[in-house]
Amino acid sequence: MLRQESSTFSALELKVKSDEARALLQAGALSVAAVSDRLGFSSQSAFTWFFKLHHHVPPAQYRQNAAPAGR
Fold first, then answer.
1. Which of 20, 36, 42, 52 has the most CB atoms lying inside 10 A of its own CB?
2. Do 44 and 36 touch, CB atoms closer than 8 A?
3. 3-class DSSP assignment, residue 2
4. Would you put residue 24 in left (φ > 0), alpha (ψ -120 to 50) or beta?
5. What would the DSSP string read from start to end of 21-38?
6. Mean pLDDT for each 10-residue chunk of the chain (71 residues)?
7. Residue 64 host element (H or E)
């Protein structure tokens, strides 16, 4: 199936982690450190590096930008 979609397991894993990170940050219930832990990163700085690489902003800024008005 991965070959049919011209993908690899690693690429799929990164996409899933990226999507889950965005969802968890938007929900706002967990701290950035807790999101990092939940997704299996070795440290919050490793998660921040990963998130910035994929979304071009740090996780805390992403959360602020994604927050609905009045929150």
1. 36
2. yes
3. coil
4. alpha
5. HHHHHHH-SS-HHHHHHH
6. 78 91 93 96 96 95 78 49
7. helix 59-66
